[in-house]
Amino acid sequence: MVKKALKSLMLFGLSIFALTGCDVPVLQPQGPVAEKQFHMIIWSSILMLFVLLTVFTLFGFVVFKYRANRANDDDYEPDLEGNTKLEILWTTIPIIIILLLAIPTVITIHDSMKNPSPDKKPITIEVTSAEWKWLFRYPEQGIETVNVVHIPADRPVHFVLTSAGAMNSFWVPSLGGQMYTMPDMKTELWLEADKPGRYDGRAANFNGENFAHMTFTVVAQKQADFDKWADKVKAEAPALTMKEYKKLLKPGLVGKKVYSSYPAELEHASDMDMPGMKGGEASEHGKH
Amino acid sequence: MENIKDFLLHDFFVTGEPMIYMADVAIILVSLAIVFVLTYFKKWKWLWKEWLTTVDHKKIGIMYIIAALAMLFRGGADGLLMRAQLALPNLHFLNAQHYNEIFTTHGTIMIFFMAMPFLFGLINVAMPLQIGARDVAFPYLNAISFWLFFFGALLFNLSFVIGGSPDAGWTSYTPLAEKGLDPGVGENYYLIGLQLSGIGTLASGINFIVTILKMRAPGMTLMKMPMFTWASLITSVIIVFAFPVLTVALAMLTIDRLFGAHFFTADSGGMPMMWANLFWIWGHPEVYIVILPAFGIFSEVISTFAGKKLFGYKAMVWSMIVICVLSFFVWVHHFFAMGAGPAVNSFFGVSTMLIAIPTGVKIFNWLLTLYKAKIRFTTANLWALAFIPNFVIGGITGVMLAVVPADFQYHNSYFLIAHFHYVLIAGTVFAVFAGLHYWWPKMFGHMLNERLGKWAFWIFVIGFNVCFLPMHFVGLMGMTRRLYTYPADLGWTPWNFIETIGAFAMGVAFIIMVYNIYWSARYGERDTTGDPWNGRTLEWAVSSPAPEYNFATIPEVKSLDAFWEMKKNGEVEKWRKQPLEPIHMPDNSYRPFVISVLFFIAGFGFVFEWLWLGVIGLIGVFLCLALRSFEKDEGHHIPVEEIERTERAAGRL
After folding, report:
1. CB contact under 8 A, A78 and B309
2. Cβ separation of B477 and A182 shorter than 8 Å?
3. Which fold has domain A8-65+82-112?
4. Where are the alpha helices (DSSP H) in B377-429?
5. Binning pLDDT at 50, 70 and 90, where does residue A269 land?
6. Which residue from B174, B396, B473 is facing A52, i.e. has the nearest CB?
7. Where does the pLDDT of residue B177 fall: very low under 50, low under 70, confident under 90, or very high at 90 and above?
């Protein structure tokens, strides 16, 4: 029942945007993580719409009805000062609404820290934000890319994030919400694409002059295509030398790049404490 | 010689930007014009004696409001520049660096130098009058608070033409705001400018608390205080608990930048995320510092123009106290996405949602205040009424942002920008405009023109919604804040263009409002009664403008809405005829002004890291403090004859 109502409401919301012909990635989820967040957006919108309509109706009613220049103001009661029953009522109803919202929120928070599809084997990709580019390292494939990240579709991706400079935030609205990247710290983000496609990713937290141009592309491919791509990069792309790596970390803009390997000394460079996790365990996450 | 020239042209004066040359010219012309007018009309002595050295809370309040209006102009101009740049994709009206500076100064100025001082101005003007006091508890300190704010704001604004503006956002997140990633003096301006005005704010908070607790008219128990006074009290409590955190955080980042420490750097053991924590431990209570006085203003205005008692007075007071307590337990919601564990995010998500409950109680109480009322649609009341629906839009998006998993999609996007402009503009800005129209006659003795006021109101409110409503959608489309430009193929263009139109409409409304101030000063209707709105609280019991001593005799308060009750029971004449006594008033002092100039000089020294100048300035400050502590100033008495003369001139004897 609720699901059905949700679905029709979603369709209604989407049709508004369809009319304008726009892409609204947050409302057009392309994976289970974004979808769960989308459900929370819709559920909270419904509850809040109820609040909005209640207040707007009451407001319109009292402002119109009790204007000073109305014909008959016999009902004017200047000393009306309170009503305990009413006050209990409008404290209780918001509490119920908040409960209806808080419970699914807390459940979803716990879910969002976990693999969205536990029956599928995840792939780990390490992400580093620098001034003003995104570096992606594939510990399982041994390759590295810049400003473009290929992922297998229909398979959960475990992003492990850090920053080589200012803070930033890694956001692919079609696939799910963002997570900050912070220097000297590690954060995690689970995303998954349902089907192959290209999705826009962007830096969400301001980090200086060329912030606006710090975008990247997520290329979701069928597993076989992904493997083929990784093999090709491994075979044909240049290696990422330490010199080149240091050059990449300097402030500036670069295009999309792929590298067949990364320097061995960087293997554990991003093994640092993860906030919210016990220090010792964090380093295990990078190597499944 | 070459070195000096090189320094002046490259590091000291901001060069190479036509807009800044225009600003240079404008600043010089306006300064010359002010000097000319003051000299021509022989007003220097008047300026010094009546304003720069005053300790009168009403005059200090007026100066706060004038400065805040100037800052609203500056911050608004920043906003319009941003909207102009974003009107269409790939514009080169502003370059990235310039845009980054402008959104940084827009946010900083609007919060620190517009919203807070505007509210402080109104608190200064109205609160002592509402409680039947003759001034605040520490008038000298009040002057210091104002001048520190003034010179802090001046220092911050100087960055536009000298040295370069800060460019790391009003939140100034580290390590971006550290010297390594942000060399130059811009961030120093931010740190020192806010530090100076922050000292003033903290002192004001203490001052207001003591005033309200110790100086109420006889009979006015806490639960008989006007709602605006309650709001001022609770706001001041929040200030006293929250501002020291900002002071410490600013000092730590200043030490990082000036002396090479590593509190918030990415290396050498610094903790960049600690800045985010400290900033928001202050920053979230700050939101309530600028919204609670607004709630107070709305309560006064709505109840006055409804011609009714405020509905649910006790619930209104308690809901503010609950908000005050909760405001210290929600700061992490500004960075849910910084990787905190599920328990932490759950706690802060739910605590944030809880704030909706006392806020909802207040909304319903205002609605019920309008129930069975006689609503007069004056300009002041229009601003207060418009607050309810518009603020509720900001309120519900606030609850939506508290849904942590959804927040990961809204965070840093234009959805967030829309949310906080809906609460800050529909809350704080509508409130200060309501308060400005409401208390204007009490400040200046004449009314603001209603016709012009209503034009400004409608244009502003429509422009506001046209500007900020589309931001919700463009945020869901993936547009993040602080982008100086965007590509054409994302579908953001039409929305952004509409937003820009709305922004300029607000600009037009502001111009009408300023014209209204000018027009009304010349031709506005005089308020000879002192009670133009049929008011309820004590500020309407005195003449307009309020005399220096506020109350010739202090009224005895028996109930809530003290003046309303006096009028109802026919006690006004009796009160006015009470025998007069000489009134003890504080003396003016030049020192609050001088001490703040010295702080400014020291601050300028620290901005440019000229420690010698900083030390000289601080020595001057300490000298002033020492002189003050050896000073014996008992104030003066206003003789009965003079009070009689003043009261008679106001037609009250």
Report:
1. yes
2. no
3. Helix Hairpins (1.10.287)
4. 379-402, 404-410, 414-423
5. low
6. B396
7. very high
